[in-house]
Amino acid sequence: MATQTLLLPAGTPAAAPARSASPRAHTGRTLPVFVLSALLATGQMYIPIPLFTAMRADWNVGAGVMTWIISAFAFGYAGGFVLFGPLSDRYGHRKVLVTGMLVAAVVTLLTGLAVSAPLAVGLRILQGLVVGSIPPAIMAYVATRITPAHRPVVTMSVATSFLAATVIAQIVSQAVVGSFPWRTVFLGSAVVFAALAFALRAVMLDDAPTGRDKPLRHSYAAIPAVLRIKELLPMLAAGALSMAVMVGVYTGIEITGLVKGSGELLALRAGALPVMVALPLLAVPLSRLSKPGQIVLGVLIAAGAMVVATFEGTHLAVLTVLLAVLVGGLGTIAPAVLQSAGELGGEARAAATSVAMFSFYVGATVGPLIAAAAAPHGFSVLAWTLAVLLVIALGLTLLGARLQRVARFASTASSASAA
Question: Given this model, what pLDDT does residue 320 score?
Answer without folding.
Answer: 87
